[in-house]
Design a protein that fits this description.
Rossmann fold; TIM Barrel; elongated; 2 domains; 6-stranded parallel sheet; about 575 residues
Length: about 575
């Protein structure tokens, strides 16, 4: 058992009779688990809540009164208790803010209901009124809270079944409200014999909710202590990961955010992650120090009779994109900096740099390399899907047999200026020749391992080794179909690719290029704020602090110092 109390767990207060209230059992269960409880006062001030969450490594959401049905569009029923608007806002905000940080959460009773409501589900206001089938009595009356009232069946393969080490668990019961529609983000994983939902979890995140009260059971029913042990274990990993992110710069070398923005998109304000996965607020949430935002230009067939004209149009679009991106960054000097001095990037700062995805936008003019460099572009992806006038693509027709003469000239100019040569999307022949021709180490900013997912866009073990031996780097792309042939990827899949590459060449040559807003993003790592979930999984897998720092950004900064 932990006994140093270094971990800190936030506990949400209740609110009765215009006073902060908390049942002592919630505090004691955290102390008995070996952590320091930090009791959060009820408030709807998000700045205060963010400050409180900054102090802790995990969150325990406690039980209490009924939640106002206005949150799911219903009128208050006579059977419902009088809701407390302040506590409702408090609990729902805590759920939202904790998820934005990828913080581990255990929700108990009302806490579970708040999770489901915040994520888009709803609840029965009164199960006995709203459910016609016969129900168990879900109130123990005078029966002690430390006694079991009924059995809950846990879903096979669920996180909670793994945590508790069983398929059935005895629980107490004290509620007349219960989950009805399960939120899209959540999964129902525990059921009473009358089918009432007794447990949920949030796939891809470390969030579990239970309808019963384990804080009253764990002393006499040791299996219940597993829930608090789980919260401690995840809080320890989360705290460790957060410390690494604040000690060492986290870098994402490829995002396509300009592809998805509209005239009204404002990157200084938190955007819906379904629309925009990278903004300055999400970067701050995840302690992401540097993100490369790229201007992506789709490829026109080389044989197209209007190729030169369309290349010039692509050039103009790229210029406009970088101008608009710079305007977005410069609008928020208190939140973000435009920074091309990559070796000087500091952790706990938010910085943006530019990349050009597709040398097609050079429009055949070598002078445009320096033009884009002067605009703040620090790498050019030589090609995209299709051969261009620089080189052959992984999805091309072997037009040049690798690099063209113009492609070699472009690399020579990039070497002179100190721009990174990005071979993501390039054919194997192009990559091999770029490694040999470039006088500086090159990079694949968003490419995964072909040995694990046989896709033309991925890189073979042989090429990964050649790249690393030349001092270059490969950054795992988080696009589902580059990670798994069936497209069913998650955090574990990402880290499997990292494992494979690290075993081949070492952590100093491996990084992350998310491809967010360009198709990248998987369950549990779907925007900038969630990159910390990769860090946490690497810690679970036994990576050292030095290895994690290399992979998450420090190794890239060292690499760039050689450009």
């Amino acid at each position: 058992m932990r006994n140093d109390f270094q971990l800190k767990i936030g506990i949400s207060s209740g609110w009765w009779e215009e006073a902060h209230r908390l049942v002592p059992a919630y505090v004691q269960c955290i102390i008995d688990a070996g952590a320091t409880p930090v009791v959060f006062p009820v408030t709807d001030n998000e700045q205060i809540l963010n400050n409180l969450l900054d102090m802790v490594d995990g969150l325990l959401l406690t039980g209490g009164g009924d939640i106002d049905p206005k949150y799911w569009g219903e009128e208050l029923m006579p059977q419902s208790g009088k809701p407390c608007a302040l506590r409702d806002e408090f609990d729902l905000a805590l759920v939202r803010l904790a998820r934005q940080r990828c913080m581990p959460v255990l929700g108990i009773c009302r806490g579970m209901q708040a999770m489901n409501i915040e994520f888009g589900g709803d609840i029965y206001q009164d199960i006995y009124t709203q459910i016609e089938s016969e129900l168990l009595p879900h109130s123990q009356g005078d029966q002690p809270r430390s006694e079991v009232a009924h059995i809950v069946e846990l879903a096979p393969g669920s996180l909670i079944a793994k945590v508790m080490g069983r398929q059935e668990v005895g629980v107490n019961t004290f509620h007349h409200q219960s989950l009805r529609k399960i939120a899209p983000l959540c999964r129902a994983v525990g059921f009473a014999p009358d089918s009432i939902v007794e447990a949920i979890e949030v796939p891809g995140y470390k969030m579990i909710g239970v309808q019963w009260h384990p804080e009253n059971l764990y002393k006499e029913h040791p299996e219940q202590k597993a829930l608090f042990d789980w919260l401690m274990e995840e809080a320890e990993i989360y705290g460790h990961a957060r410390r690494l992110h604040r000690e060492s710069p986290v870098v994402d070398t490829h995002t396509d955010t300009p592809m998805v923005w509209t005239e009204t998109t404002d990157l200084g304000v938190r955007q819906n992650p379904e629309d925009v996965k990278v903004d300055f607020v999400k970067m701050q949430d995840g302690d992401v120090a540097l993100t490369f935002m790229v201007a992506y230009l789709p490829q026109v067939a080389l044989e197209d009779e209007d190729y030169k004209q369309k290349a010039q149009e692509a050039h103009d679009v790229a210029v406009e994109t970088f101008v608009r991106l710079r305007e977005q960054v410069d609008r928020y000097p208190e939140k973000v900096q435009f920074n091309t001095q990559i070796t000087e990037i500091k952790p706990q700062s938010v910085n943006v740099c530019f990349g050009l995805e597709n040398g097609f936008a050079l429009a055949g003019d070598i002078r445009n390399v320096e033009k884009f460099y002067d605009m703040g572009v620090r790498y050019i992806t030589l090609c995209h899907n299709g051969d261009n006038d620089l080189c052959d693509s992984a999805r091309g027709n072997n037009t040049h047999g690798g690099l063209s003469d113009f492609g070699r000239e472009v690399i020579r100019e990039m070497n002179r200026l100190g721009m990174m040569v990005d071979v993501s999307h390039a054919a194997d022949t192009t990559i091999e020749q770029a490694i040999e021709y470039s006088t500086q180490p090159i990079i694949a900013t968003h490419t995964s391992a072909k040995a694990l997912c046989d896709h033309p866009r991925n890189m073979s073990d042989e090429l990964i080794v050649k790249l690393a031996k030349s001092g270059g780097r490969i950054h795992v792309c988080l696009y589902n179909y580059f990670l798994a042939k069936d497209g069913r990827a998650d955090i574990n899949t990402i880290c499997d690719h990292i494992d494979h590459m690290v075993k081949l060449v070492g952590s100093e040559y491996v990084g992350i290029g998310s491809d967010f807003d360009g198709g990248g993003g998987v369950l549990g790592c779907n925007d900038s704020s969630e990159l910390i979930n990769i860090t946490m999984e690497l810690i679970r897998r036994g990576y050292s602090d030095e290895e994690v720092k290399n992979i998450m950004g420090e190794g890239f900064v060292k690499y760039y110092s050689k450009i």
